[in-house]
Design brief:
The complex is a heterodimer of chains A (111) and B (113). Chain A has 111 residues and is mainly β. Chain A has no helices and eleven strands. Chain A starts with a strand and ends with a strand. Chain B is an all-beta fold. Chain B is globular, with a radius of gyration of 13 Å. Classes of the chains: A mainly beta (111), B mainly beta (113).
Chain lengths: 111, 113
């Protein structure tokens, strides 16, 4: 079966840089996605890595290494509004495009 | 405005009383999905639909039913709700089954007593 592991909680300071890791065990997948969810809100799509390497979107970047079964989300110039939970997800190659989700990382930002 | 809508947003019900949570999207998306979210467990897929009249079980389908008679609607039915179905439910859609970006509805918080 597939599984994704993320830290349950990460704390950082406003203005700093933080990295949220996602490691996975899977026989095959199409790519790694990242979603953001504020308390009481719905998940919203942040980024996707189909290939190894770094994808940058403004203050957010995401990285994938298939050989290491590892990815991460990098948030720069942290703002208080970045306080949220972050989920990694993969689309399973063997089960009809089903999305498999990590349990999420709660990011706490201190002033 | 492109969106996924769910109703109701909040529901408190009793064990055994059938209920339906509606989901509708106005983006002409082929793929729709239902998730439940519980603390510490992330998002778990209940059912998904690749297109009209095509539905498949996700990871936690027991106790739920779905239907996809029209492209825009994907209702979630709990025939006999039980307290372990108390959860936060999300409907999501994407343009095609292989699209990596899913659009989520606002969520339905269900409490079964």
């Amino acid at each position: 079966g597939q599984s994704l592991e993320q830290p349950s909680e990460v704390t950082a300071v406003e203005g700093a840089i933080v990295q949220i890791n996602c490691t996975y065990q899977t026989s095959g997948f199409y790519g790694l996605s990242w979603y953001q969810q504020h308390d009481g809100g719905a998940p919203t799509f942040l980024s996707y890595n189909a290939l190894d390497g770094l994808e940058e979107t403004g203050r957010f970047s995401s990285f994938l290494s298939r050989s290491d079964s590892y990815g991460y989300l990098l948030l720069q110039e942290l703002q208080m509004k970045d306080s949220a939970s972050y989920f990694c997800a993969v689309r399973d190659i063997d089960s009809n495009y089903q999305l498999i989700w990590g349990a999420g990382t709660k990011l706490i930002i201190k002033p | 405005e492109a969106q996924v809508t769910q109703n109701p947003r909040y529901l408190i019900t009793v064990t055994g009383k059938k209920l339906t949570v509606t989901c509708s999207q106005n983006m002409n998306h082929e793929y729709m999905s239902w998730y439940r979210q519980d603390p510490g467990l992330g998002l778990r897929q209940i059912y998904y639909s690749m297109n009209v009249e095509v539905t498949d079980k996700g990871d936690v389908p027991e106790g739920y039913k779905v239907s996809r008679k029209e492209k825009r609607n994907f209702p979630l039915i709990l025939e006999s709700p039980s307290p372990n179905q108390t959860s936060l439910y999300f409907c999501a859609s994407s343009s095609t089954p292989d699209r990596y970006e899913q659009y989520f509805g606002p969520g339905t918080r269900l409490t079964v007593t």
